[in-house]
Fold this sequence. Notes:
Signal peptide: 1-21
Strand content: 35-45%
Oligomer: single chain
Number of domains: 1
Pfam family, one: E1_DerP2_DerF2
GO molecular function: sterol binding
Subunit structure: Monomer.
Number of strands: 9
Family: Belongs to the NPC2 family.
Helix content: 10-25%
Largest sheet: 6 strands, mixed
Amino acid sequence: xxxxxxxxxxxxxxxxxxxxxxxxxxxxxxxxxxxxxxxxxxxxxxxxxxxxxxxxxxxxxxxxxxxxxxxxxxxxxxxxxxxxxxxxxxxxxxxxxxxxxxxxxxxxxxxxxxxxxxxxxxxxxxxxxxxxxxxxxxxxxxxxxxxxxxxxxxxx
Length: 156
């Protein structure tokens, strides 16, 4: 009995250390749908693969919209560090960003959106490795959310 208990504790200890390893921690993507019901489903890719402070990043949306996107619609980006420090919380006019007249009709769409990253990083503790999460959503002109995804991102 004691040998079995020691074996189980050893396996538990090893597995708990392995899952805490930075190599195995969830990093860049994949982006998954937020909890809740949203009429437009999208998958996104982010470029560059590692975000850089002071440079532009591009999100490419591929999806199906059941609801048109009207003039005044916004896309929102929130990036947070795992210590709850906000890196970015911004909202942009989606119609102006796409360079076309709205409404964008319902149906299959591929849209690329570019946004500026903050110029500088928040202060970090020496030697600490941080993990970053990103939420991306589209809100129509009437303030209803059309789409939302969450994922992890890396910084260069």
